[in-house]
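chain below, 680 aa
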Amino acid sequence: MKDLMTNNNTTYTSIRHISIIVFLSAFLILKNTYAIDYIKYEREFSGKGSTQGSFGKDIHLTFNNGIYVSDTENRLIQKLSPTGEFLFQIPANPESNENLLEKPGHLVVDSSGNIYVTDITAHHIAETAEPKIYIFTPCVFKFNSSGELLHTYFVDPVDEQPGVVLPAKLIIDENGKTAFGIQPTGHDRSLRVAINPQNHLFVLDAKRGRIHKFDVDGTKLKTFGRYGAGEGEFDKDSADIAIDLRGNVFVADTGNNRIVKFDSNGNFVRAFGTKGRDNSEFIRPNSLIALPTGEILVKDSSKFRRKVGGLPEVIALSPTLTQLGDSTPRQIELANTISNATRPQYGPFAHNDLTLGDTATMNRRLRLLEEAEYRRYYEDYETDDENDEEFADELKRVDIRLTMLHNVVSRIQKFDNNGNYIDRIIYEIDQLSEEKHDLTFLDIDPSGFLYLRDTSDFTITQYSVTGFTVKPSHMNGFYSTRAINFNNNYLEDYEDIDFSIDVDDKLNQLELKNLFGWTYSLSEKWYLTLLDEFTYGEQDERYVTPPKIEDSFDFETQALENAFAANLKYITNPNPYRYKEFNLSVGRINGTSDLTQDALFPEVNRQHRIDSGDANSTVLEVNWDVWSRTNIWFRYADLNPAETSRNFIRRFYDVSGDLYEVFGSRNEARQFLGEFTIKF
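prediction:
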């Protein structure tokens, strides 16, 4: 028996070492192959308001020795310090009739401190009078650092008199006289602006498929780009423009899921990126930042969901005791509860007939999400009206109800000047946090600080970018505890003519269970899950029969079981129609049981029994979707014991208290299972 136990411990030690080596190797490969940066909270500033460092709903940021913010709703531009303190605003009085700003949007600041902001204006068409004719058009206002207007840039012809009859609105001009205003289609479209090292202004007019380049004196130098998906083309919903220190122009071609690069003269250089959620892939890129070091940061709309609240699919932990609340078992069944219930009946530690095929199990990893699931988890909603917003909110509520924790991981990718992928920044939003669940991306400054905004109270949170380290902010955990106590009391009178107690049988069962789960997001696709379930169970039975006190006995049993599971998951393709993932799992169960049965009245009967048992099982699994409909599953299991709940040593003592029999039961098995499945 001692030799058997020694061999078993040696095997367990070897498997444990192998498991640790496998997980550490996978972790190091991940860390070295996939460079990742995380973010660190620095400060919070701003809030809902109309002046002095507070803003309305729609704002844009730019950075140049401070933070410049255009506020569409409040018709002003504010400058803040790098840490968010209010410095000044343009204009000083936004309510004044002299305020030129109508709907200030995207903005940029040049090396001299001049501020360029996109807007809408009514321009007087030259040589029209009595009445004057105005045309509403998108524009870019240029202010100096003191707020004085220097120039107005137009991307559309504004001084040409209409050659055809056009509808116009009756308006009052700045002199209080009657005039007419023409509002052509697209007069209120949004523009994006950028400045090159020579302070030339570039205006992205995505709706028209054009980029306009202006000299420092306001002269239009050239126009380039066009609508499409080919070389030198971009979609009409292109969302941003950035210029590096060499003067190269980058456009976030949102609809084509790529970045388009032009040189400083507007010549097409290259396009990089394709649709997807992997490195160098985009889901609707919407923000570009050119760093002083020459790298380009790209924020897209891809989101990766994290849900915690259940066990890994390949690991199922079993209770030490049976489900006590289901029914009242008979006494003899209760007497064997510990010895029969501690063996898992499901999951990787169960004893399965490997010759039987289970369709559900065979296809447990191969699934194509339905359209509803695709919309629910992967589609980025554009809530253009109240119905869309209500629908999106309802989906969010459903998600929260179905999960214990629900986090969303977003990413920002970094590329060199030629579009080669370097690394990425990821950040996580806790959807169950009342304060932080509605944080949205706002911007990144050239120093690498990330800005997120709370869409409820309009506060702005600044984060610095840090390297790959284990941070509590990227950990999700849950703890569950359960206590069950079950009491039975049986008084029995056997078949005779009087009523007297022939058997007084009292039984108590107790189960205490603690389950701890912990998930760490290694990246937007990698995450590690650890689970540990500790269970303590005991049973105490006092069986008294007054007519034959020598048959009375006291039965006690105690059991401890600890089940541990670790799962390393990598989502190789998050596309719901081509979904693939890789899982590496290890599980371990250790358990002990002690049972004693003693005669209640040793003066007449010293007969008793002592049982001691143990269990040590290990399972290693690899589950890999080689292709979206092809799965490979390997499992190695060292089951000890394999057929029972415990390996027991039983000692029996006779009525005199002398040992007369020792029974040892030890059984173990090693299993290897390989499964290859193709789904048609």
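The CA atoms of residues 291 and 446 lie 5 Å apart. The helical segments are 2-33, 331-335, 337-341, 359-362, 371-377, 386-402.
thats it, cya
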